[in-house]
Amino acid sequence: MSYIQNNLQAGEEIKYKANIHWYIFVYPIILLLLGVFFSCAQTGIIYYIGLLLLLLGLFHLTKRILLKVGADVVTNKKVILKSGILSRDALELILSKCEGLRINQSIMGRILGFGSIIVTTGGVTNKFNFIANPIKFRNEINAQIQ
Predict the structure, then answer these.
(1) Which of 2, 16, 101, 111 could bond to 74 as cystine, CB 3.0-4.6 Å?
(2) Distance separating alpha carbons of residues 132 and 146, to the nearest angstrom
(3) Which spans in the chain are helix H?
(4) Which run of H or E residues covers position 101?
């Protein structure tokens, strides 16, 4: 959050911080479990498939942990999406330029309470994925626009 705190404008304050849902860890955990299962064979091609699955699982787990460490924040002036620790990717959307908000939720997303928010500004579409409670996130954006 220090990046966000250091880049707030005068009179700007954080109104809501969205959480990334734990569901992002399901895919890497499945890869890791399959990798452990197959690498226990210790012979033949199944062993190498298990090692490959372990490497893929570790890669995706690291990627998802870095995503979870990022921040999706609504201030009274903009929406900020920041990701990355070593390298940084920050997207700031000015609320006064916001034209549309859309929520996408799969069946699993509706059951577990996560989804994507799509924000349209000036003909550009920006997507915030795996947001826990996306309806609350949308409502916070709408509250700051009005």
Answers:
(1) 16
(2) 23
(3) 2-6, 26-39, 44-69, 107-112, 134-145
(4) strand 98-104
- 64 CB contacts (<8 Å, ≥6 apart)? 24, 25, 27, 28
Which residues, 6+ apart, have CB-to-CB distance to 117 below 8 Å? 101, 102, 103, 127, 128, 131, 134, 137, 138, 141
CA angle (58 as vertex; 54, 63 as ends), nearest 5 = 150
- What gap in Å lies between CA 22 and CA 48, rounded to an integer? 29
How many residues can be counted in the chain?
A: 146
- pTM for this prediction: 0.77
